[in-house]
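Quick one, T. Sequence first:
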Amino acid sequence: MTDTALATDAFVHRTSDTSERSHAMSPASAMPAPVPETPAEAGAAFVPPPAAAPPRKRDLSAIVRLASIVLVIGAWEVFGRQINPLFMSYPSAIVRAGIVMAGNGELLTSLLSSCKILLMGFLLAVGLGVVFGLLIGRYRYFDAATDWFVNALYATPLVALIPLVTLWFGLGDAAKLFIVTLMAIFPMLINTAAGVRDVPRSLIEVSDAFAANEWQVFRKIILPSAVPFMMTGVRLAIGRAIIAMVVAEFFTAITGLGALIVKYGNQYDTASMFVPILLLMAMGVILTSLAKRAEQMFAPWRGSKRDG
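Structure tokens:
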């Protein structure tokens, strides 16, 4: 190769390097690529942003419940004033009567007397109902020996037994306690027995295969499986216990909220008669709410099933 050809080749090589460096250092190439503003500019590579999550709906149940309470009380106040006070009263008059009864201590004394009997009878009914329900649901021969008796008493209007109860226990707290326990025990007993019978047979067979004793079967399999049924029995027993307490006080006692209803009913004081009635309604609502909380604590999967 001649000297002229070598010089020409070196000149072409330097020119090419200079052109590449100029292109690399140009302002246009140093700037970042523009962001496409439309799908057409971006072409097929455009991916739409994810849609924003819808706003969470507010739970309006409390507002609707409060509005219904205000509506009912307002309507009662307006229309109750149009009725003869011997037959009907209205909320403002009931509040005034309640203040008078609370001031002289009559209301608190009656409330404590009723709550004492209600709590004792309810706890006794729950304890006996769980024990006998477990035995009836678990053991076939125990069920055969007692089912006729349970069904007969459950179908009998227990109010019809109150005169007999007064002969046995007199007119004091013992008679009220017996009546409350007798009326509240059956929802507990029947639901507990149903929960025991609902335990899958395969779980019992697995416990037998692992040589579990009877106490372990009760503690680890039967009781956890029957808890939802027991909590249903508790909620039903609360309502029956309150009814039993009032009925018992109508017939067997001179104290308690039931006795106040009878007293002011005989005096045709309708506003004062409504005070213990509304207290009983409030007790039912509060105790039922507590039972729901207990159910959520001991059987939380029931709430998740309902929500689902």
